Amino acid sequence: MTALAQGVDWLTVGPAVLTAVTALAVLVADLWLPRRAAVVLTTIAVAGALTALVVVGVLWGDARRTFCIAGSPGALESCSYVVNQITLVFQAVVLVGTIVVLLLAHRDEVSGPNPLPPGETGFLILASATGALVLAAGRDLATIVVALEVVSLPAFALVGLRRRDARGAEAALTFFLVSVVSVAVMLYGISLVYGATGSLHLDRIATVLADPASRTSVATAGVVLTLVGLAFKVGAVPFHFWVPDTYAGAPVVVAAFLSVVSKAAGIVGLVIVVGEGFPAYADVWGPAIAVVSVATMTLGNVAALRQRRAVRLLAWSSVAQSGYMLAPLGVASSGVAGARFGAALSAVVAYVCVYAVVNLAAFGVVVVVTRSRPAGLIEDYRGLAYSEPASAAALAFGLLALAGLPPGVAGLWAKVVVIDSAVSGGAVWLAVAVAVNTVIALAYYLRWTALLFASRSAGQEAVSYDVPASSGLAVGIALAAGVAFSVLPQLVLGLADVSAGLLG
Amino acid sequence: MVVNGQVLLHVALGVPLVVCIGLAVMPRRTGDRLAPWAGVAASAVTLLALLGAAVLAGRDRGGHFRLVTDAAWAPALDLRWHLGVDGISLPFAVLTALLVFCCSLYTLRVRPEAGRLRAFVAIVLLLEVGMVGTFLALNLLLFFLFFEIVLVPMWFLIAWWGDPHDQPGRTTAATTFILYTLLGSALMLVGFLVVHAQTGTFDMVELAARGGEGISRGAQLVAALAIVGGLAVKVPVWPLHSWLPDAHAKAPTVGSVLLAGVLLKMGSYGLVRVAVPVVPDGVARLAPVLGGLAVVGIVYGALACLGQRDLKRLVAFSSVGHMGFVVLGVATLTPAGLNGSVFAGLAHGVITGLLFFLAGAIKDRHGTSDFDELGGGLYVRLPRLGALLTFAAIASLGLPGLAGFWGEFLALIGSFEPAELLRRPYFLVLLAIALVGLVLTAWYLLAVVRRVCQGEDTIGPRLAVLGDVTPHEVACWGPLVALTLLLGLWPGLVLTVVNPAVQALLAGASL
């Protein structure tokens, strides 16, 4: 141990630090500013997240590492915080998602019957995003668990943020309890892995596990249990049951945040842990993830078929979408051959990027509509195209892209990428499962889309509202990104060309 | 002035798309007023562009792709903007443009009952982009994209403007249609990706030239199962046809014409263009099954037609039988069979398009297309409409001298002498069954003529019957009548274009 107090590469940790500082700044500013100063707070929060996004842009294409410790003589040093292409893509997704959610939340902070407290909302969203940013760069299990908790803890508070809202409080409690249990299981798994390998750094764990002689049931159990905590965060079956209740009980804008930022964090954590730490055990977690993936997409889609409330439908749909995201990881069973796992990883990255923007577009419109129709029934969207054509167009695009059909072409490419990774991994059954699931999913996405253009039934009032500039901008950003990914899929497919090596 | 051929293909795709988007963003009043004429103009431009392309490319007798554009789109996906035409795709593309033009012209006067003219025209134009694009695409992913573009617009066409008397029924029909066909195309995509995993390319020209080389036998079978199975839903091959009768019967006239005329052809075109040349070995192993299902479909379609009590449903079911001949031609894997498949597909597009126009006109005039309610005596009541219906029915049953004859005749020749690797006795049995189907087809079509056209006018005063065929209808249907005669009397016009491409295709597949 040469130096315990080591130099920190501040640029590398820049996005996370900036976001954390902004979070604190919002909280402090809220104390000094008069009430009704939500505009200032939102501006600070968005500006901070934008600056962090600029730093991500500066780092783009770089591979940097910090918080390193020297290994045994001759071995490479191990680092806790590594920034490479995968990290940067996910950080960009997290930051864009955060900006969109902050903008969407603005109106709910300034008006409505039960407004969100502006300072706390901004602070909690940014704090949770900080956790997601760190998670994308974490390379040791301690950092990853802490980051995961930093994502989750503010999220509990966000879900129950509306004062005097019993449903929100109950949703927060469900979310909290399930989360705590899953993290406890994950910590138990990590302790087993630590016991078996003597390290928390993923690269060292990988080195030890790669030795066939070290293969023990303790290590295997540790690997599986470690993944449980991440599966919870992603909302994969059988750890999905908190999703619909939590989304439905939370303020809609918080549900949007959970379905994009929080989920992206879970996915990137999973990718890093299995890819960097447990490649030698791909024969254990590969088939497990494949089975979980199919179960997740099927259950999510079948359950979504019966939903009559917009947010519940999107909640089940987001469970199903998690299944698609996991599918490429499911084919990495026969040892992680570099190129193939790289291709699977590219598929996951591309899918998450597309999902994030189109899901935000759909959720954004739901946030706006729910303000004037608090019941949130899908039936409330009947004829939206005639009273609010722009909202209806954005929602229709988002839903059809989630379904993967033109005109939502971005979603079509995303589905192609996922099915392709399954087929080229030799798992035609998995590809067929995804294909069949897209058919099931189309039934509910299409029903809702059709309702937007249906004529209103007699006696039904037109849904009509003023779209505040902040919300319009938020949906516009998501929609523009979705259209861009449709026309130029290379933008998102070429993002993470990691076929050369796993995590740089 | 030298016209750059590639530009013509882009005009054919771009103009309908631009007009469609333009209509969508236009204020509703202006849009509703402009829409019918915008539709006619856009589809006329597309038709002219594709006719121009036909003049430029149709002279090629070497079976090559002409007017080729090949540009990278998304290298990471191996997706390329790769368009071109040959003797097989060109006639289908022109047929599509012609039918859309006829439909647009028809919409000028015969407005959809449900209104929303702007959306109606925009949707038809979006359909045209998808349909024409499918026939022009030379990259498997691009083909898939165009294939999928038609689904959502067709859903809306059926669910909104379909049978005004049966609101829940038309929604169910539309949803059944889209879910079935999406299942088919998703399976087809899996097949494409299996091919890509083995060969590393989506380039249809290159894959056809390789003739399945580089794809293992097992993978060929898996890919062929997925591709043929997926396309079989679209065609549709018995027993995957169950989405078809309702979708056709509930759709508005324009929707039925395009469904029967073009959408089904996208399936049979895919069999010829993709399945046979790309995975020939796999298709050859599936061919006996495919041929068997095709003749079952021929007989089943005819028997089902005999039991129909509704004119529109009868025309819909007749498609199952006719597409059976189209598939049988492919299954023989011979030049005659493939030529017959392409020709029968084109003829079916023209004749069934005409039949659906006529069925729609009868339904609009009588408020019903049920045989019992229609009664007989159309000759007495509306002599010109009755004559046209008789003409179309006779063309459909395959009378020599009309378009329906040659394709089915060639398909039968193909199964008389199937490709060498297929068992001839088996295909002779198929031939015999198909002939039975042909007789049954003649029977039910003549029965239609007898029931609807001949006999006494029993309709009485209870149904409002408008006048006979209008000049406007003559303008819309005239091209189809003329083409039925032209293709019947001069099949060489099309076959000399199709045959070189078929020969080249089979040579590449080394079958």
Topology of chain A as a string of helices (H) and strands (E): HHEEHHHHHHHHHHHHHHHHH
Q: In terms of per-residue confidence, which ranges of chain A show pLDDT below 50 for 5 or more consecutive residues?
A: 499-504
Mean pLDDT of chain A: 87
Oligomer: heterodimer
Q: Overall mean pLDDT score of chain B?
A: 89
Spatial arrangement of strands, main beta sheet of chain A: 1-2
How would you spell out the order of helices and strands of chain B? HHEEHHHHHHHHHHHHHHHHHHH
Quick recap:
The complex is a heterodimer of chains A (504) and B (511). By secondary structure, chain A is mainly α. Chain A has helices at residues 14-32, 38-59, 85-110, 118-137, 141-159, 166-197, 202-210, 217-234, 242-249, 252-277, 282-305, 310-326, 338-372, 384-387, 389-403, 409-424, 428-453, 469-487, 490-493; strands at 64-69, 78-83.
Short key terms for the protein model shown above:
heterodimer, A: 504 residues, mainly alpha, two-stranded antiparallel ribbon, 19 helices, disordered C terminus, B: 511 residues, 2 strands, 76% helix, 3% strand
Protein model, in words:
The complex is a heterodimer of chains A (504) and B (511). Chain A is mainly alpha-helical. Chain A contains 19 helices and 2 strands. In chain A, a hairpin with an 8-residue loop joins strand 1 (64-69) and strand 2 (78-83). Chain A is globular. Chain A starts with 13 loop residues before the first helix and ends in an 11-residue tail after the last helix. In chain B, a hairpin with a 4-residue loop joins strand 1 and strand 2 (79-85). The longest helix of chain B is centred in the middle third of the chain and has 33 residues, at 167-199. The chains are: A mainly alpha (504), B mainly alpha (511). The A-B interface holds A 346, 400, 405-407, 409, 412-413, 416-417, 419-420, 423-424, 428, 431-432, 435-436, 438-439, 442-443, 446, 450, 453, 488-490, 493-494, 497 and B 73-77, 79, 119, 130, 141, 144-145, 148-149, 151-152, 155-156, 159-160, 175, 178-179, 182-183, 186-187, 189-190, 193-194, 196-197, 222.
